[in-house]
Amino acid sequence: MNLVSVIIPCFNHASFLRETVLSVLDSTYSSIEIIIVDDGSSDNSKEVGEGLAIEFANVFYYYQTNAGPSVARNHGISKASGTYILPLDSDDRISHSYIEAAVDILNERDEVKVVYAEAEKFGATTGRWKLKPFSLYNLALDNMIYVSAIYRKSDWLRVGGYTENSILVREDWEFWIKILKDGGGVVKLPFVGFYYRIHSNSRRKSMRKQSKNKEIAYLNEHHALFFKKQLNGPLRTNRSLSRFINFFKN
pLDDT tier at 248 (50, 70, 90 boundaries)? Predict the structure, then answer.
């Protein structure tokens, strides 16, 4: 069985960390390692993480000075031995069948680069997370693949990992662009495999217009050919009108 490395960055989520880890350990797929990367937490995440590593032989704990989720994910993946990678935030959960179903597809279909599933929200907001269908055009406008999709470590190496730049608040969006812009299949499993915890003041909800504009400028600078192909020009601050605006600008 191919090993799956589950990478869990943790910043002050000690109260959720065990629940997240147990959801992975409940998987029907047994060839799993769990790598917790404590991103400089000031709560008792260290105590919880080290305790889980002592309790379970396939759980490993690492600490880093606070540097953000992209650095933490890259740190964890650099330690990973798995063929496949599943990033999982330390307050979220997965279903017991998610990993096994995703691995089956990745094992059988070399052209598929990313597998994810239907998702549900819980916490401050509950209910099905209505994700737009995947296409490269839709990906150029917004992200519909949450961070906890499963992919090959070789693709992480190929694109240089997650971009470690604080301008990118939606760093997972840019990562999927890097992996998929030159081709490759995406499969969404037809069942709920991921549970996304909603907090009342999430990092992305609080994203200001100025930050969004800086992120868009970064994406245009580093992925100009991708946006040219999909949108006939750059991604605009009014993203949904990008192709329409570019039609008249060109």
Answer: confident
What is the C-alpha end-to-end distance of the chain, expressed in Å? Answer: 52
CA torsion 21→24→26→29, rounded to 10°?
Answer: -150
35-78 tens-digit pLDDT: 999 999 999 999 999 999 999 999 999 999 999 999 999 999 99
Nearest-angstrom CA–CA distance, 197 and 104 = 27
For 4-207, which CATH superfamily applies?
Spore Coat Polysaccharide Biosynthesis Protein SpsA; Chain A (3.90.550.10)
CB-based contacts of 236, cutoff 8 Å, min separation 6:
216, 242, 245, 246
Task: Say if CB 8 and CB 89 are below 8 A apart.
Answer: yes
